[in-house]
Amino acid sequence: MFKSGAQLKNKLIIAAVTSGVxxxxxxxxxxxxxxxxxxxxxxxxxxxxxxxxxNNSTSTWHTQCSGTYSFNSRGYWLLPGGWSGYITFSGGxxxxxxxxxxxxxxxxxxxxxxxxxTKIPECR
Length: 124
What we know:
mainly beta
């Protein structure tokens, strides 16, 4: 018997979760949404990005894999763990972050975060 699209999707998600395989697009609750591209490597150290929701509560997005992630959210706090990379704000301003160097984002609108696979030159 043929299964509906929803049943197949649920089976695919369950299979991916139980086998430890990540599926394409990461999602973030609230107004932020992350889409990833070019994941190059993963490690046990967790990168955390905390952002402000429209109701002024905070939410946290995290990853353990390098990549470039797109957002449109008001940044609150960055806890890079053992990662370095770049954060881009609306208007094009870009700042770097280094391993274990927590960064206050002052509610600026974050449009992209690049979590580098290797230590960036600014952090060496």
